[in-house]
Amino acid sequence: MIKTIGILGGGQLGRMLSMAAARLGIRVHIYEPLPDPPAGDVAARVFTASYEDADALRAFAHSVDLVTFEFENIPAEALDIVEAITPVLPRRNALTVSQDRITEKRFLQEQAITVAPFVEVDTLPQLVAALATIGTPAILKTRRFGYDGKGQVKITDAAQAEEAFAALAGAPAVLEQMITFEREISIIAARNASGEVSCFDPGENVHKDGVLHTTTVPAAISHALQTDAVLLAARILNALDYVGVMGVELFVTSNGLMVNEIAPRVHNSGHWTQDACLIDQFEQHIRAIAGWPLGDGQRHSDAEMVNLLGDEANHLEQWQNCAIHMYGKAEAKPGRKMAHINKISPKSA
Amino acid sequence: MIKTIGILGGGQLGRMLSMAAARLGIRVHIYEPLPDPPAGDVAARVFTASYEDADALRAFAHSVDLVTFEFENIPAEALDIVEAITPVLPRRNALTVSQDRITEKRFLQEQAITVAPFVEVDTLPQLVAALATIGTPAILKTRRFGYDGKGQVKITDAAQAEEAFAALAGAPAVLEQMITFEREISIIAARNASGEVSCFDPGENVHKDGVLHTTTVPAAISHALQTDAVLLAARILNALDYVGVMGVELFVTSNGLMVNEIAPRVHNSGHWTQDACLIDQFEQHIRAIAGWPLGDGQRHSDAEMVNLLGDEANHLEQWQNCAIHMYGKAEAKPGRKMAHINKISPKSA
């Protein structure tokens, strides 16, 4: 029986995972290089050390029954050390796939899942050739370490190739065709070790400056597309023999669903589940990795989640009768995710 | 602005208050004599010291912006020390009233609120006389320190007086008439410093061996009685100029509502709010004492809360698709509150 879970990363996702674990009577130890992490306020123990500190990683791994993570760019060497001592869930294969955009797209294509046309780009001549193939508008993205619109640049004209290539500072990249979509949705899916899969209803996402702004549930899509999204998510989880919660970002296009990206962890676009589902994505993740039965994913209410960045979290007057989720971050830097709110209303069809 | 709240007591109520505070970005420090308290797993800091340790109490009080409590029998001397340094909410007058059954009943009568007929009992002859006045069945209760059916004995025949008196070992007591009631309900009410009052819907309670077993919402009472309960709770809160959440236990009798007892804190019969209201009793309490606007108390779902005592918390198989709230207690002693579950269903009228 899992009594203590270690989480690599102490940000807001680790914080909300910690509280979910506590509800199930499971203690959490946080591993985080930065001092005073958001998750530290609600965790039984915090290890403050770098991902290069093998001794600290070993002590951390020995102190828990199971390790999980709140972000996907954990150095492989750190995971090697931890995994030699304690099981890590979700398993490494999911990280390998999701850490590299090219690996991820190829994996998805192998599952017969549609992704945007893409070309690998390591040099400027490759980018020029890729633009000729893919056309514009297109997006040049680093293969690794991108998040919240960082590590990517939009190209509207082939003449911008040199400037765009320079912007990524020589990092291995991928050029993706920019997709014309009706809407962006995401589906948060969970799978446990016995192969049980459970999905939350797809939410509709609106981004602002490359960062998720709102998620609205239900998404304004047909029942057929909802089912497609569920089946597609299940296919991904099953192909990876995945254990845990995954966020799958999708474009709704005139030709059906296309996967934008996957995240092998709880996801910002699943925060609405905290207040519109009996068992939310955080608890679902803990249940999945700790071997508990999953919640059924049903929502009891419609919901809208709004991210509050920077100073927005200091102006809560407008969010009367909303659920407020503050991340406990000391400094409200511009653009930094500080909190989110959930508004709920009676469930529609 | 309140950034850190201290909680006197580290049990399950402190644990759930801590998580509610974290959602609002407020850190919690716990003060608890027993090592390894349930609230410690989700608190930023734990002070492990007795209520006689003046230095520890002072350090605790200095470390926070505001102090609250999760149980009402805090030694007055400890509160004196804390209060000299940091504000305590709810205020002392609510504790004075609720710590002593006689004081409480007299206070309620002053508010024109009906309570069961009662007589003060300090000696055996007083008990014999009281039984002649009140009749049987009656309940002899200690004036102070009673909870969960402890410190009370039922008297069905005047001949049991001596035995009953001996059972309370000479503690100052009160003899109460045993009320014939249709049902037991409770109402969880909140009031903030600006006098705003907010009530959750009354829940219907079933006890087992003197301990709360289930709370079901809505209670099967008329709309008129629901309104009576709300008005009665508001009268109590306003009379005390109360700040925080209070639990009011009521009997529904053929003559209307009668108050059984009040608790100046979050209450076991309000645990259903965690999963059936957007803002639950724990967050409502933190909002009230920290000067935030209150939630409106509306429920989005019907609910049933079931307490799990002792070994029951090791058998969760039957609670599929229920919200489980474990208290993180190491030892499942018989009768000990270990967890509760909440079942929800679509909201009825």
Short characterization:
Chain A is of the alpha+beta class. Chain A has helices spanning 12-23, 54-62, 76-83, 92-99, 101-110, 124-134, 161-167, 223-239, 273-276, 281-290, and strands at 4-8, 27-32, 45-48, 66-69, 118-121, 138-142, 152-155, 173-177, 183-191, 197-199, 203-208, 211-217, 244-253, 256-263, 301-309, 323-326, 337-346. The radius of gyration of chain A is 20 Å and the shape is globular.
Using brief descriptors, characterize the structure shown.
homodimer, Rossmann fold, D-amino Acid Aminotransferase, Chain A, domain 1, nine-stranded antiparallel beta sheet, globular
Please characterize this protein's 3D structure:
The structure is a homodimer of 349-residue chains. Chain A is an alpha+beta fold and 349 residues long. The radius of gyration of chain A is 20 Å and the shape is globular. The first copy, chain A, has 3 domains: 4-88, Rossmann fold (3-Layer(aba) Sandwich); 117-177, ATP-grasp fold, A domain (Dna Ligase, domain 1), CATH 3.30.1490.20; 183-346, D-amino Acid Aminotransferase, Chain A, domain 1 (2-Layer Sandwich). Helix content of chain A is 28%, strand content 30%. The longest helix of chain A has 17 residues, at 223-239. Chain A has helices at 12-23, 54-62, 76-83, 92-99, 101-110, 124-134, 161-167, 223-239, 273-276, 281-290, and strands at 4-8, 27-32, 45-48, 66-69, 118-121, 138-142, 152-155, 173-177, 183-191, 197-199, 203-208, 211-217, 244-253, 256-263, 301-309, 323-326, 337-346. Chain A is built from 10 helices and 17 strands. In chain A, α4 crosses α5. The model of chain A has no long low-confidence stretch (mean pLDDT 95). In chain A, strands 9, 10, 11, 12, 13, 14, 15, 16 and 17 form a 9-stranded antiparallel beta sheet that branches. In chain A, strands 3-2-1-4 form a 4-stranded parallel beta sheet, with helices on both faces. A 4-stranded antiparallel beta sheet of chain A has the order 5-8-6-7, with helices on both faces. The A-B interface holds A 15, 18-19, 22-28, 40-44, 275, 278-279, 293, 295-296, 298, 300-301, 313, 320-328, 339, 342, 344, 346-347 and B 15, 18-19, 22-28, 40-44, 275, 278-279, 293, 295-296, 298, 300-301, 313, 320-328, 339, 342, 344, 346-347.
